Each structure stands twice: as C-alpha cells, then as structure tokens.
Amino acid sequence: RMSYLLYQMLCGIKHLHSAGIIHRDLKPSNIVVKSDCTLKILDFGLARTACTNFMMTPYVVTRYYRAPEVILGMGYKENVDIWSVGCIMGELVKGCVIFQGTDHIDQWNKVIEQLGTPSADFMKKLQPTVR
Questions:
Q1: Does the residue 130 lie in any domain?
Q2: What would the pLDDT profile of 92-116 be if each residue is shown by its tens digit?
Q3: Which DSSP letter does residue 55 get?
Q4: What is the tens place of the pLDDT at every residue in 58-98?
C-alpha cells in the first residue's frame, strides 16, 4: 500500500513538473488519501511556474520538508518537491518526522546528522556568507 501511495505521489509531481509547475509546499497535510487509496495533492497556494524569469521566493516549504537548497538560500527548481516527497515517505516509514529542526539552522543540522556532510561540489555552490 505504501509503495502505491509513493507511486501516485511521484506521478502527481511528475504531472505538475511536466506542466512547468513547482508545488513548493508538499507536506502530509497537503496530501489526502481516500478510502480506495486514491491520493490527491492539495493546496497550491505557494505553487509557481518553473520557467519564471524572476527570483523565486527564498522562504517556501514547511520547515520539516524543506530541501537543503531552500534552507541555505540557494536557487531551486523542481528538486524541492522531490526532496519533500522523500521526507514524507521517510515519515510514513518511520512514523515520525525525519528532520525535525526548531529553526533553519537546526533544520540544516538535522539533515547533516542523518545524511552526512555535503560534497565539496555542493559546498562550492553556497554563498560565501553561508559557508
């Protein structure tokens, strides 16, 4: 059943991304599962088109589901939705939030504690003030 939910979530995100849309706020409360296991993605209030020429809002996605690129104020695209899906699925498997930071710094520390230090290539992409 869980793999079917993941499949539906990824199909929904693929459909959005194919249409050039980034959801930007995927979290369990924005996903509903009906009794027949049909999954629906809700709340498109923060959704934006991926091909916009202006700077994306840096503060998006509920903290626990926020991708490293968003936490660190880097540029982002559709990858933020994929990260969020991974966090949601991890939460379903473990039964608790996997990166439960109290603020953006603690959030980043939780990610590093679980996944290790980022690669040198990733670190080079950071603003000097963040390094």
A1: no
A2: 999 999 999 999 899 999 999 999 9
A3: P
A4: 666 788 999 998 888 887 889 999 999 999 999 999 999 99
SS3 content of the chain, % helix, strand, coil (to 5): 45, 10, 45
Model's pTM, two decimal places? 0.86
Handedness of CA 97, 98, 104, 105 (dihedral sign): positive
- The CATH number linked to 78 is 1.10.510.10
Q: Among all chains, which residue has been given the structure tokens 């003030």? A: 129
**Which residues, 6+ apart, have CB-to-CB distance to 100 below 8 Å?**
64, 110
Q: Closest Cα partner for 108 from 121, 122, 94, 92?
A: 122
Question: Comparing C-alpha atoms, which of 129, 74, 76, 66 is closest to residue 103?
Answer: 66
Structural domain boundaries enclosing 2:
1-49+58-124
Q: How far apart are CA 131 and CA 126, in angstroms?
A: 6
* Residues involved in catalysis: 25
